[in-house]
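Readers outside the structure-tokenisation community will struggle with the description of the input data as it stands. What matters is that the chain and its backbone geometry are given together, residue for residue. For illustration, here is how one protein appears when written out as sequence plus structure tokens:

…
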Amino acid sequence: MDLVNHLEGRLLFAIPKKGRLQQTALDLLDGSDIKFRRDHRLDIALVKNHPIALVFLPAADIPTFVGEGRVDLGITGRDQICEHEAVTPPTEGTGAEEVLDLGFGYCRLQVQVPKNGPYNEPKDLIGRNICTSFVGLTEKYFLALEEQQVATTILDIDLDSKATRRLKTKIKYLGGSVEAACALGVADGIVDLVESGETMNAAGLKAIDTVVESKAVLIRSKHPSNPELVDKVAGRIKGVIAAQRYVTCAYNVHRSILPTATKITPGKRAPTIMALDEADWVAVHVMVEKEKIATVMDELVSCGAEDILVGKIANSR
């Protein structure tokens, strides 16, 4: 099948083609009942049960395709959106709109230097060699740093003049293995993503500032081809995220203890309370954040709740 000629009338949805965000993004699609089959040689897959086509792109390119309206929806990192906007500022008709924080892929874009080196503050790197994969954000960061330094020494300076906006710090692009640049003598410092910090520590580096904090986000074009379908997909993904975050908790409690129990389990909106056949006893059904459920159960037992049950949520709206 010539997939390119079957895209007309379909919502185009960009997914990272590889990397740390891809698998979780695919899991969100699965939970949202977006069914497709992808040939491993192709970067386009037609969704079977909706008029949607998935386009698999590098995460760094997705803000460009969405921002220019070539693709309707996309999943990428906030760091990539900020990098794109640093190079190509959004206008009234271009640029991507953030729809939903997806709650995974947390990382920080940080300025890093050798632990035993002479640099301890970002201003120490002004005029030095910096390596990064995020040239736009790095140039913007050091330009602001340089202007701040100049402004402290010259009164009434025009920060928009060409003289002050000429970048003294030398920014070099590296597509990968940025953390090795300092050890190999290519850079005095780097600007790179940090997740756990293990790679940074192994390379003998330390962070001295954070440029951007990032998570995976769902973005949309300012002029999507099918706004109703965009809203439907976003709603489904939001439901999957809620289901991943919460569990259901049901328990029985004497009515005299109910105020204490519902303070422990207030729920997303309010708990569901039903009377039992036994006098002065009620059943409570409520959603609880998954990471807090063990502590909540301990507190419910302590206050006198009984028959506590916890269940998984497949989806939520």
